[in-house]
Amino acid sequence: MFTVYIDSTIPSYLVSRQSRVPRISEWQRITREFWHDKRFEFVLSDLVITEISIGDRTQVVDKLKAIEGLAVVDVLDLERAFAQQLIIGKAIPEIALADAVHVAVTAIHAIPYLATWNFAHLANPHTIPKIERICREAGYSPPRIASPNAILEELS
Predict the structure, then answer these.
(1) Coil, helix or strand for 71?
(2) For position 91, which CATH number holds?
(3) Each residue's pLDDT tens digit, 97-153
């Protein structure tokens, strides 16, 4: 079984209304496939719960119901401090503090995968090497940050 930390994009795509935009519709389909794959044990943080608790009430209820029973990691001072290191090191921009926290949680708790549809600050070829360098310099093994489809392909 593979342990995978999920950021808020995963439950959001999982329960959102079916999109007519082909790319978004495909991401929704892949997210459902990923979610139901028994090879994965999903983990999230209390920050993810906070993030998915904002917005359309029906969507919020559906997202919270979807994550029921998953292991939850509390974000504490250690995670917040390491998130700041990621920002200071210019791996993640200051405006994306929550994204830095997601990386910090996965690195500190040695969660091997971080699944996200966030290509702006997390799953992109410009930020990943910086994130990996800062994790290693701090003595942590960096998580594999990738979209659900990339994780599914990698583990096929």
Answers:
(1) strand
(2) 3.40.50.1010
(3) 999 999 999 999 999 999 999 999 999 999 999 999 999 999 999 999 999 999 999
Distance between CA atoms of residues 8 and 11, nearest Å: 6
Domains: count for the chain: 1
Q: How many of the other CB atoms lie within 10 Å of CB of 39?
A: 11
Residues 6+ apart with CB under 8 A from 83: 92, 97, 100, 101, 103, 104
| Residue 64: exposure state from Cβ atoms within 10 A (0-12, 13-18, ≥19) | middle
**Distance of alpha carbon 1 from alpha carbon 4, whole angstroms:** 10
Which of 116-146 are b and which e, b meaning 16 or more Cβ less than 10 Å from the residue's Cβ?
Answer: bbbeebbbeeebbeebbebbeebebebbbbb
- H helices of 68-127, in order, are 77-88, 97-108
